[in-house]
Specification:
single chain; alpha/beta; TIM Barrel; Immunoglobulin-like; 9-stranded parallel beta sheet; 5-stranded mixed beta sheet; 35% helix
């Protein structure tokens, strides 16, 4: 009897130890997750914020929604640094291509304005850490598809996007454009494309490197990918792609691509799309997602993999569901024996390193506060106006710096550069639009006021505005 009692007590002890171990492991995973700076380099949520007809922002994600990502879900899932994509395909109309990018970028600024107590826009590694330290979400604006850029004014427009906070851009979505060939190998009109990266695409990558904007190779055709790798002087990312060797989907990366990307110092951000994670007949799960993470680690090391969900742009595994489920990924990583430093890298450290390195290599030095001119546009961000021929104005003063260089004054409208009028007595620059601007859904525009002083310190002030369509 004593023998059986001893066996019974040993069994209880063993069961208790196993339960305690499981509880401790769960606690460790939760602690690791919420202690890390969690980065997700791709979501399409701003598409769900805007009205489908006007593209004006109408849906506030500061409250619980039915979407895969909103602020309450980000807080519940410990998501610190979401990259918000301004997604576009080629709409076949240049003004509409510009308007779409500006509309979704404006939606992010609107979202932050409505919820500034819990979220802010971050344009640098320093700003990310400052916001996270305050307990806020650090939103990073990005672009998915450079269809708004064309050789005539594309470089100036790219600089305006940078002014609006954009810190990463995928040159193509799946449809080919003037920058390069997308994974679908066709243009907007259905005609076949070829040739990889265009000469203009090479120019755009050089300017992105100069500015400190991350080159994103997701959605590129393989020929475009290889030329983008050759063109860049800074690390690159695939913002939402997975592993071709595990699931041969055309949007996943092959081993040689992953190795080449890692050799730039870049990161593969594993997408959560079920069709990228599991083969036909299989069920996509968090375990499958971590299989893709592990594959990249085994191929190129722990420093070159991260998370790129594609929330609100795809179907994700049922056991993950939405942004609130992100801690489950950490639980799976812990269960496979990954250490806290390793998990910190996967969850966000690698992506932040790339952002920091890209900006460190940039030639676009920030303006020194107090030495450049001070510019205050009359327009506010996202302002709605009714006139298609507005008078665009701004106050310009020397601030605490040198005398103004009046010959340097420029107004840049949708990438086109103009010499404005200057009223020295009033301290204003102005530009009268004479050719009517597009309105309604095509009515988002961007204006930059640029000025320098005789010490050659340059200031820029950029605002998005919307020209309302006239009543029917």
């Amino acid at each position: 009897m004593k023998k059986y009692l001893k066996i019974f007590l040993c069994g209880l002890l063993l069961t208790g130890l196993i339960a305690a171990s499981a509880a401790a492991q769960h606690f460790d995973a939760e602690e690791i997750h919420f202690d890390a700076v969690v980065v997700d380099t791709h979501n399409d949520t701003m598409m769900r914020v805007v009205n489908s007809q006007t593209w004006l922002p109408v849906n506030d994600i500061g409250v619980p929604t039915t979407r895969q990502l909103d602020i309450p879900k980000m807080e519940a899932g410990g998501l610190d640094v979401p990259f918000f994509a301004a997604y576009q395909t080629d709409y076949g109309i240049h003004a509409r291509n510009i308007s779409r990018v500006l509309a979704l970028n404006n939606a992010l600024h609107w979202t932050v304005g409505n919820n500034s107590d819990v979220i802010g826009i971050a344009t640098s590694l320093k700003e990310i850490h400052e916001l996270v330290k305050k307990g806020k979400i650090a939103a990073v604006p990005t672009i998915e598809g450079g269809y708004s850029l064309r050789p005539s004014e594309g470089i100036e427009l790219l600089n305006q996007f940078y002014d609006l906070g954009v810190r990463a851009m995928a040159l193509t979505w799946s449809v080919s454009n003037l920058l390069g060939e997308g994974v679908n190998k066709v243009y907007f009109d259905g005609s076949a494309s070829s040739g990889g990266l265009t000469d203009f695409g090479w120019e755009v990558i050089a300017e992105m490197n100069r500015l400190g904007m991350i080159v994103d190779v997701s959605h590129m055709h393989v020929d475009t990918f290889w030329e983008a790798v050759a063109a860049t002087k800074a690390p690159i990312i695939a913002s939402h792609s997975s592993v071709y060797s595990l699931v041969p989907h055309m949007r996943n990366l092959k081993d040689d691509q992953i190795i080449a990307l890692a050799n730039t110092g870049g990161v593969v951000q594993i997408a959560f799309a079920v069709s990228f994670l599991a083969n036909p007949g299989e069920t996509a799960t968090i375990a499958k997602l971590v299989d893709h993470i592990e594959y990249v680690i085994n191929l190129v090391g722990i420093d070159h993999v991260g998370l790129g969900s594609d929330f609100d742009g795809t179907t994700v595994p049922a056991d993950l569901q939405n942004a609130a489920g992100l801690p489950k990924i950490t639980e799976e990583l812990v269960s496979r024996g990954y250490s806290k430093p390793e998990i910190d890298k996967i969850l966000g450290g690698n992506a932040l390193r790339v952002l920091g390195q890209v900006q460190l290599l940039a030639e676009n030095s920030p303006v020194i506060v107090g030495q450049a001119p001070a510019i205050t546009p009359t327009l506010t961000m996202g302002q709605i106006i009714t006139s298609p021929t507005p008078l665009l104005t701004a106050q310009v003063s020397r601030g605490t710096g040198s005398l103004l260089n009046e010959s340097s004054f420029r107004v840049i409208l949708d990438g086109n550069v103009y010499i404005p009028e200057y009223d020295a007595q009033a301290g204003t620059v102005s530009f009268q639009v004479t050719t009517p601007l597009t309105t309604g859904r095509d009515g988002f525009h961007v204006v930059t006021f640029k000025a320098a002083n005789i010490a050659q310190k340059v200031a820029r002030a950029t605002k998005t505005f919307y020209v309302q369509a006239p009543p029917p």
